[in-house]
Structure formats: structure tokens, C-alpha cells
Amino acid sequence: MNYWLMKSEPESFSIDDFMKRPRQIEPWEGVRNYQARNYLRQMKLGDKAFFYHSNCKEPGIVGIMEISKEATPDKTAFDKKSQYYDPKSLETNPRWFLVHVHFVAKFNSIIPLHELKSEPKLKNLALVKTGSRLSVMPVSEAEWKTILKMKI
DNA sequence: GCCAACGTTGGC
DNA sequence: GCCAACGTTGGC
After folding, report:
1. How far is the CA of A29 from the C1' of C6 (A)?
2. pTM > 0.90
3. Is the CB of A129 under 7 A from strand B?
4. Fewest C-beta in 10 Å: which of A22, A88, A99, A109?
């Protein structure tokens, strides 16, 4: 099994929004970065991912989700009315992909970014490297376990 | 294929 | 809201 970390801005989609969804299966739309896209395409059914809140008052890891469907074309790229529309992504040759995820757990408390940064075992995690803007990134099994131990 | 200009991300 | 550090675009 592979492990991942995926960012979401809580103002558009938070862990609480995720919990409230009755079927709790969501398309992870709108990734428009090639490196992140390539990671999405590597994801396998049953892989687990940390849910990370970005661009907010308290950035950090807030829970866990699981990949419920492997990569398929992100159809919002074909939709002129979508904020994620990309005229260069053609239905005959899609540029952007998404995975579907389902909710697994919300942590009792956030693991804040500053704690992740101060943990030496996580120094290779893309998230804590200066200037990293990746919204989808791999997490090693060792890093996954380290982060789980940081929960209160 | 270089690289300046521009747009975006995301912590602070 | 600021702005550094990125990624992308497009002229040449």
C-alpha cells in the first residue's frame, strides 16, 4: 500500500465538510499541476492519504482518507463554466485526472504544520521543504507512522 | 530551448 | 493582505 498527503483549502472543502457527506465519496477535483497529477495517477485502490488543510489560519493534517477509485479524467477541465476549466485538456486527450476518495477519520486535534516541520524524521517530506507548493505528494511508510504517533 | 514576465500557492 | 518561491507561458 502507498501513502499520500493531499491538500485542501478548508474554505472550499474542509474535513468537516467531508464528514458530513452522506456517502462520503468525493472526486478530488481541480489538481492542475503536472507533478501532482502524476502522483494522482500512481494511486491505487485502498491507498491511504492524509487530509491537509492549507491556506488557512491553522494549516496542518486533520485526518485520513482512502482512495476509493483510481485516476479518471477530471471532467471539470472540459467544463467552460468550471473554475477548473482548461481549454488545453481535450476529451479525446485529457490532461488532468482525479481520484475518488472516501472519509476514514478526523483527528481529535490538528497536527499543525509547525510541529511537522520540527520533527526531524519528516525532514524529507515534500510538505516541509521550503517553497514546496505540491498539493499531492507521497508519504513513506515510516513518515506515515511517525505522523500517526504525533496525534494527541 | 532560453528566459523574462506573469500568475499562483500558501505560510505568515 | 503581503510577498517569496514557485510553475507556466510565450516571444524570440
Report:
1. 22
2. yes
3. no
4. A22
